[in-house]
Amino acid sequence: MEEQLRVGLIGAGPWASSVHAPGIAEHPGTRLTTVWARRRDAAEELAGRYGAEVADDPDRLIDQVDVVAVAVPPSVQADIALRAAQAGKHVLLEKPLAGTVDDARRLAGTITDNDLASLVMLTLRFSPEVIDWLAEVGCMGGWTGGSAQWLSGALLGGAYSGSQWRHDQGALFDVGPHAFDLLDAALGPIEDVLAAHKTDNDLWHLILGHANGVTSTVTMSMHLPMRPTIVDLAVYGEHGHNTLGGRKTSSQQAYAAMLDTFVEMVRSGQHTHACDAQRGLHLQHILDQALRKLA
């Protein structure tokens, strides 16, 4: 077996603890070697579970690893991931890439210029049921529209309810990238946000314009008492109505599949992928358009 990639994890919150850390530690191609978090006690607790070290600051972590996995708010990620890319480290990135398009462009550009492997945590894209559905709708073609609904109470209670950036930026920045990515992959590139409306309880309604005149709609919120979360995605056109079925793959399973791809990217030297940092930049433009349309 080739030597495992040394991975440093930035962040020790719920997603880092439940998905990133165990996924990296259990994958045969990676080894969790170092953790850094703003709260040192949280970093120590998480690192201790997997025999990893705790870095005194992000730059020391970057110096010690081959790969930097980031699980912090977008505005924080933009700075730390940029420093990792400038140091020549491959990166596993959260969505969205950054708080602004300029920061996302700077990060994606540095990753490309340094020929680094990157993947954005669009974990649904690594689920077999989603891969099969996208292949099916891609082969059929003839779609004229689509819709996505993503409704949850994640910010009303539970592991992520204390996440300030999610409260500040809402469903648009947290679940929006997933919805936009899947509609874009199914129907063609999203070129414009035609309309956007947001209610006081963070319920978003958007109309998206795709290439070739196709349109789609997105409805999403993380402040509705939905148990379980509702995630519906469909396309329609000359072949009727085709719906993505319910999720069968857990986040942990999808993350493991994503790591399979990432390790192969690093080993092979093929550093581009449909879910890499350039994809993240494309999604950042859509987020920016939505905010501008709302304004």
TrEMBL record:
InterPro entries: Gfo/Idh/MocA-like_OxRdtase_N, Gfo/Idh/MocA_oxidrdct_glycsds, GFO_IDH_MocA-like_dom, NAD(P)-bd_dom_sf. Keywords: Oxidoreductase. Gene3D superfamilies: Dihydrodipicolinate Reductase, domain 2, NAD(P)-binding Rossmann-like Domain. Residues 5-114 form the Gfo/Idh/MocA-like oxidoreductase N-terminal domain. Residues 163-240 form the GFO/IDH/MocA-like oxidoreductase domain. Transmembrane segments: none annotated. It holds the Pfam family GFO_IDH_MocA. This is Gfo/Idh/MocA family protein.
